[in-house]
Structure formats: structure tokens, C-alpha cells
Amino acid sequence: MSTRNLLRTDPAAARQFSIFLVFLCTVLGAAAQILMKSGTQSSGHDSAMALLIAIFSNPKLFAGYALYGISTAILVVALKYGELSILYPVIALTYVWVTVLSVFIYNESMNPMKMLGLATVVAGVAMLGRATRR
């Protein structure tokens, strides 16, 4: 049986597959944002045209936008097999990955309010995950 047929006939497998794809989107989206920040720091652009040129001439900016495109394509596939009300909140994990990466890569500060916010996001996604199992 092909993967496509399995996903059509087994709702549990389709749900797991779609959640995995959305989780992958969060990782790709976070990597895209880090690449875009890195790319914008190395190039000065003060107009929309300069930014457009930078996207195609700066490898980090180009890679960031390319990852966003790939992430969006994967999200479309995930939405085909899963419930929007469950999948879309999982995308909030992107905030968690970006914040953690920003602390390690850019030495940004982490304060108790940021930690509380991230814990709230993770707890909310976990609650949704438990709700889907019932």
C-alpha cells in the first residue's frame, strides 16, 4: 500500500504525518528567520528595490526566503491531511525555536517573562496534542 493510500485510509496515520510535517515547518521557519536576520546584518538596504536586489544577491537572505517557501509548501501538504484547528497552533513553536536560537547565536537576553511566554506556548501546544489523542 502506498503512503498516499495509507494516509487516506488511516486517519491516525494521516494525523501523525500532518503533525510531523507542521513540526518540520516550525524548524524550517525558525532557520529561515535566523538566516534572514543574518543576511540583513551583512547588507545595507534602505529601499524596497535594494532589499529585492539583496534577496537575490545575498546567499543568507536567499536561503532564508527559500526555506520559507519550502516550509509553506510542506504546510500545504500537512493541511491536506490534518485538522487546521490542531495544526495551526503548532506553528507557534516557531517562536520557541527562534527565541532559543537568538539566545545562542546572537547572544540575545532571556528574561523570566520571555521564559514564561515560551513555556505558555509549549504548554498550549502540548494541551492541543493531548486533546487530539482523545
SSE inventory with pairings:
Blueprint (H helix, E strand, L loop, with lengths): L2 H7 L1 H31 L6 H10 L1 H23 L2 H7 L2 H14 L5 H22 L1
Helix pairs in contact: 1-2, 2-4, 2-5, 2-6, 3-4, 6-7
Content-based structural category:
mainly alpha
Query: How far apart, in Å, are the first and last alpha carbons?
Result: 27 Å
Residues in helix, %:
over 70%
Main β-sheet: number of strands, strand sense, barrel status? none
Order of helices and strands: HHHHHHH
Estimate the mean pLDDT confidence.
88
Number of helices: 7
**What ranges have pLDDT less than 50 throughout 5 or more consecutive residues?**
none
Shape: flat
Number of strands: 0
Q: Cα-atom Rg, whole angstroms?
A: 18 Å
Strand content: under 5%
Q: In total, how many domains does the architecture comprise?
A: 1
Please describe what this structure looks like.
The protein is 85% helix and 0% strand. The protein is mainly alpha-helical. Helix 2 packs parallel to helix 5 (84-90), helix 2 runs parallel beside helix 6 and helix 6 runs antiparallel to helix 7. The chain is built from seven helices and no strands. The chain has one domain. It has helices at 3-9, 11-41, 48-57, 59-81, 84-90, 93-106, 112-133. The model has no long low-confidence stretch (mean pLDDT 88).
What descriptors fit this protein?
single chain, 134 residues, mainly alpha, 7 helices, 85% helix
What's the quick description here?
85% of the residues lie in helices and 0% in strands. It is mainly alpha-helical and 134 residues long. The protein has one domain (3-133).
